[in-house]
Amino acid sequence: MKSLKFAAAALGLVSSVAMADDGWSTLNTYESIAVNASPEQAFSVVSKWDALESWCPAFVKTEIVSGGNDVGSVRAITLKDGPTFTEELLALDKSGLSYKYKIIDSPLPIVEYVSTVRVVSAGGQTSIVWLATYKRRAKDNPTAEQNDAAMMNLVGGLYKACLGNAKKVAEAH
């Protein structure tokens, strides 16, 4: 029941925009995918903090900068086209099949990014859920390539591609 409540609450975040008092939007992106694998199998795929590239094809390298795979650890991840950025693991709940992290430094056109990856099971179905809150880097007068819709498409597109591959990896186990 708890999983269903989480999934229902997260559904409200599907690529939505919440306007801040200063007009600088907090963006929310939610993507999920059903997998034909146990929740534990699915989580074993997406929880590889030290090997993001093993399930997310947009990345080619993960390097642990500090802390290993524990809360507080920092990783540097490199995109296929070369840029590298760093993320910090904020929470890890192995029994709850979830983790939370934030971007520390990034070439991406977003800031204040905090994300959760969670595996939920409901009605015999396993889903991998990925959601985030963030803001566009261009605070004032963003171009069409920097506006809210463009940022939600960027993050949502990345999530869809990675989750599609995570499904394949989880189902191959």
Which structural class matches the secondary elements? alpha+beta
Overall CATH class: Alpha Beta
Described by the principal axes of the CA atoms, the overall outline is globular
Overall number of domains: 1
Number of E-state strands: 8
Q: Spell out the CATH superfamily.
A: START domain
Portion in strands? 35-45%
Which strand order do you get reading across the main beta sheet? 1-2-8-7-6-5-4-3
Q: Could you tell me the mean pLDDT?
A: 87
Radius of gyration: 16 Å
Low-confidence spans: 1-16
Distance between the ends? 27 Å
Largest sheet: 8 strands, antiparallel
Corresponding CATH architecture: 2-Layer Sandwich
Give the helix level as a range of percent: 10-25%
In short:
It is built from three helices and eight strands; from the N terminus they run H-E-E-H-E-E-E-E-E-E-H.
Describe the protein in words.
The chain has 173 residues and is of the alpha+beta class. It has a single domain (2-172), classed as START domain (Alpha-D-Glucose-1,6-Bisphosphate, Chain A, domain 4). 25% of the residues lie in helices and 40% in strands. The chain contains three helices and eight strands. It has helices at 2-11, 39-46, 148-172; strands at residues 16-18, 26-35, 59-66, 74-79, 84-93, 98-105, 110-122, 125-136. An eight-stranded antiparallel beta sheet has the order 1-2-8-7-6-5-4-3, sandwiched between helices. Strand 7 and strand 8 form a beta hairpin. The radius of gyration is 16 Å and the shape is globular. It starts with a helix and ends with a helix. Mean pLDDT is 87; it is low at 1-16.
